[in-house]
Task: structure prediction
Amino acid sequence: MVRLWFLTGIVVAAVIVAAACGGGGGEEVEESAQEVAEQALAQEVAGDARRAQRPGQRTVTEERPQRVAGEGEVIFPDPAVEEAVRKDLKQEEGPIMIADVAEFTSFSVNQLLYVADISGMEHMVNLTEFDLSQNATADISVLAGLTKLTRLDMAQNDISDLTPVTNLTELTYLRVKDNRVSDLTPLSGLTNLTELDLWENQITDISPLASLTNLETLNLTKNQISDISPLASLSNLNHLELTRNEITDISPLLESGLGEGDTVRLWGLDLDDNSLNVVIPQLEEKGVRVDK
Result:
């Protein structure tokens, strides 16, 4: 309920601020600000609904008898994963062969809610895109060898350990929204990333992000971050979300790449006087849109 009150406040505040802009484009700005805020509210409600469904539920995997794979065969312990594989292969029955799944370049099990075991995917060695979002997966170790991945969506799972992504250096897009991550060290070498979403985790230290200088979009909403000095080195940033953290000082943003046409969202922050009266006006003078 607190989340709903907060985000409803965002909608109202966004409309008021936009209306205060005045001028011929006032209505367009107001509509845009309200739309952004309403999208955030919808995402929050959907996330709460998803989390409410999961406690106490049993996955089909728990009741499935184990069997030994034949020569050249891969077994997917989770029946939902197997079903998705069979759909992509257009193969309703019979053994699934390693050679066949090795040809996959994209794969998705998104929104199946209860997929906890993605074993078998280690054989998808040519995969470039994988969508695991909205499931119940905690162990992603089988992804460690999928070094051709460029896009990986693991939003809304139970992941706390990102170590398996350490060597996925071809990634340009990584989404880990709504998980249990606190340690970002495994991300420090993913220097090809241009978009990173870490919304709603348990992050306090973002120093490993300092090396990700190709980042253009970064979402750190709803964490426990207080020090954003590592962001000063991100010279290519054009969209940054810091909403609902413990940040008081945003002066490092003046040293980042934020400039004309870029966006920073600071909703729900208790900013110090320097940030409010000096830093934000300077960002706005550079052409940065600051939502606060």
